[in-house]
């Protein structure tokens, strides 16, 4: 059991590190395409990338039909709504700030899991660690002083859009965890990514002007990397959510790593973004939340 737990934690950290690189890639891609078109292309490609990994053990038609509602529900919350809001929000705020706001997702997930998942209740220590992490995200967000200018109000709206994306992602996680069926999680991920991406791309045809000029190689590099990380990270996450004994709130706590690493990558790779004192203070709160939670977990296992 300890080895299984260690493996779960390692895979969770790997998935979160992959996700933390997305903010840079999204910012690069949005220079040349609308948010819904870029998101749709990314997730359709992600779904196709996973095809070789489940085709040999593909489910039959009756199995797909019996789980069709669940697949569509996951695609709706986990890709279409979550990433429709995420990409739109990314057009309003810097990549580093977006990484920090998305860092509130463990808090949102834990609260929803408390009410939707039997046996996944908030303890005092877990609640305190999540609150500390939420304070870290609040410090990071408010340090931008969004109320002092019109651009600041746009950023505040972007923060609100990304918080709604957190709710959609949390509901998607709960859907996957509650339906512990025999359907292959890699197939589930591939199907929901492609369906959600197709919906976003079709939405872009209605709402966005398609680029006429030839886009540079950096666009395709960002698109390829984002497609890969979605295929890899979501497959890892869906597998972990299906493991016996894995709680949605505990697993999602590791997503507090995403704002820290995402902001660091944005500062290092995007020349228009740079760090300041308050973001570091927020990061310290997030790091303390992770340490506090895991110290309590270690004590529980020893007892």
From TrEMBL:
- Subcellular locations according to the entry: Cell membrane
Q: Where are the transmembrane segments?
A: 32-56, 68-90, 96-117, 129-147, 153-174, 186-207, 219-241, 253-270, 276-295
Residues in EamA domain copies: 9-141, 157-294
Q: What is its main location?
A: membrane
Q: Which UniProt keywords apply?
A: Cell membrane, Membrane, Transmembrane, Transmembrane helix
A Gene Ontology cellular-component term: plasma membrane
Tell me any Pfam family this protein matches: EamA
Database matches in SUPFAM superfamilies: Multidrug resistance efflux transporter EmrE
Q: Which PROSITE patterns does the entry mention?
A: PROKAR_LIPOPROTEIN (PS51257)
Entry annotated with the keyword Cell membrane: yes
Which InterPro entries would you find in this protein's record?
AA-Vitamin_Transporters, EamA_dom, EmrE-like
- What's this protein's name? EamA domain-containing protein
């Amino acid at each position: 059991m300890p080895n299984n737990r260690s493996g779960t934690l390692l895979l969770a950290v790997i998935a979160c590190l992959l996700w933390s690189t997305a903010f840079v890639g999204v910012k690069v891609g949005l220079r040349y395409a609308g948010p819904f078109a870029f998101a749709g292309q990314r997730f359709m490609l992600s779904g196709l990338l996973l095809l070789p990994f489940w085709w040999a053990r593909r489910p039959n038609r009756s199995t797909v039909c019996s789980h069709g509602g669940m697949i569509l529900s996951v695609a709706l919350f986990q890709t279409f709504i979550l990433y429709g809001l995420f990409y739109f929000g990314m057009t309003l705020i810097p990549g580093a700030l977006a990484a920090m706001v998305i860092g509130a997702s463990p808090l949102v997930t834990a609260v929803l899991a408390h009410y939707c998942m039997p046996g996944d209740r908030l303890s005092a220590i877990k609640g305190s660690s999540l609150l500390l992490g939420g304070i870290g995200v609040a410090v990071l967000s408010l340090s931008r002083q969004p109320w002092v200018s019109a651009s600041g109000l746009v950023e505040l709206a972007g923060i609100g859009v990304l918080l709604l994306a957190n709710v959609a992602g949390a509901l998607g996680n709960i859907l996957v965890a509650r339906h512990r069926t025999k359907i292959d999680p890699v197939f589930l991920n591939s199907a929901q990514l492609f369906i959600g991406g197709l919906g976003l791309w079709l939405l872009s045809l209605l709402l966005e002007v398609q680029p006429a000029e030839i886009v540079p190689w950096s666009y395709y590099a960002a698109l390829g990397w984002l497609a890969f990380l979605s295929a890899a990270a979501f497959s890892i996450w869906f597998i972990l959510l299906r493991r016996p004994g894995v709680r949605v709130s505990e697993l999602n706590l590791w997503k507090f790593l995403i704002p820290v690493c995402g902001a660091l990558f944005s500062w290092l790779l995007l020349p228009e973004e740079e760090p300041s004192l308050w973001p570091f203070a927020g990061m310290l709160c997030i790091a303390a939340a992770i340490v506090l939670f895991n110290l309590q977990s270690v004590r529980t296992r020893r007892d």
